[in-house]
Amino acid sequence: MKFFSSLLIACALFSGVAQASSSQAWNEQRQQMLKACLKASQFKDAHARGKPAEFDDQVGFSALLIEGVYPQKHMQQQTGTELCLYDRKQQQAFVSEWNPDAK
Asked: 23 in helix, strand or coil?
């Protein structure tokens, strides 16, 4: 009986470590995504707008909205939004202008 108690305690401790490791890995992946998306963005003062959308591992992408200021002089400091698709496997970011109100 003592053996099973020890085994249960060991399993509980191990599962806690695994969850912490997994959480840390997700945070690191999100930081990599944010850095890559901001680098790919053409905006000045670019920043994330909200939380990322995480697609299934079969797709392998995450999506993040980036907001910032258009760098072109004729845009007169207007803000805009870009959609960043991040390929988790290749660790590459791709951005496109995002205007959900445009027709």
From this structure: helix
Contact predicate 84/66, CB 8 Å: yes
- Per-residue pLDDT band for 60 (boundaries 50, 70, 90) equals very high
When divided into structural domains, the chain yields a total of: 1
Q: Model-level pTM?
A: 0.75
Distances, alpha carbon 16 to alpha carbons 22, 24, 29, 93, in Å? 10, 12, 20, 32
Residue type, 86: Y
**Domain membership of residue 46 as a residue range:** 2-97
Q: 82: phi > 0 → left, psi -120 to 50 → alpha, else beta; which?
A: beta
- 43-52 residue pLDDT tens: 999 999 999 9
